[in-house]
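Lab notebook, bench 4. The sequencing result for the construct came back, and we need a structural model before the next group meeting so we can plan mutations. Quick request posted to the team channel:

Model the 3D structure of this chain.
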Amino acid sequence: MSDARFPAMVFASPRRLPKAAELEGRVVVLDIAFASDNLGKGFDKTTGRFIERLGDRLACWVDHHDHPRHVDFAKDERFVLCTKAEHGACPEMITPEMVRNTGPIDTVVAHFDLDGLYAAAKWILGGKEPYPGADDDARCVDTRIGEPSPKAQLVDSALRAGYRESGLLPLIVRWLVEGQPKGAARERIEHWAGEYARMEANSKTIAARYAIADDIAQVTLKSGDGPFDKTELLLLGQKLATVAVVSDQGNVSIAAPFDSGLNFVELLDLGGGMPTRVNIPKKRLPEALERIREALRARAG
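Done. Here's the predicted structure in token form:
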């Protein structure tokens, strides 16, 4: 059972949502984008079904990712939705008034990145930042614009290496809520941040294979590449060209700087998601590259 200070915490992604029946009591959903209509099962079979099955137990849904179905919920006060351009991160959307008006909740469902964990911590704290500047840190990390504090860099590194590690995500939220004390929790976070340092080094090795043409940097992963961080690999590609493309056997990740003016969701007809970082099936890569080249030429004037 959850307690008054710490509700049950479940971490998810747009296409990997928990079963509504397994969630305790009233539920708040933070930093979980609506599923893209043109990828996977789409909105109706994922997000829409999840909302329907939660029913009145859904207390609030706060998100900042672009999606055309936001308009369907404009009159439902439980949904606080905006675009990435309006809010670079989710925590800054959460206010004491929002938490107070929502009332008691039993479960927090949050995205498993820093943005989602910081949003969860802020909600548990009644709409107060876990430390001064935490909202700014979340925005820096989620947009990759600016320099996050050492504390945020520590958490981000730990998450990028250990987000699949059992118990790490709720431990980080509790650590944030409790004032980031020294001790076992911080030591565990530091351990995973150390693991990330090795992944980061391997990402740089892979990045040496980037091929650049038409302001697009492309690299294909190999079976023997070993552990790496895709976010870091994409960022390294963006130092070489405006658009970075990382391909594996069946999927492609495409990214550009937050302030690039590119919107891959619209450009590739994806029907929702983060405008400057998307994933597509590899079979769509030739078509996607042509559209991106056209957009880059238009951007250049």
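The longest helix spans residues 184-207.
Will bring this to the meeting.
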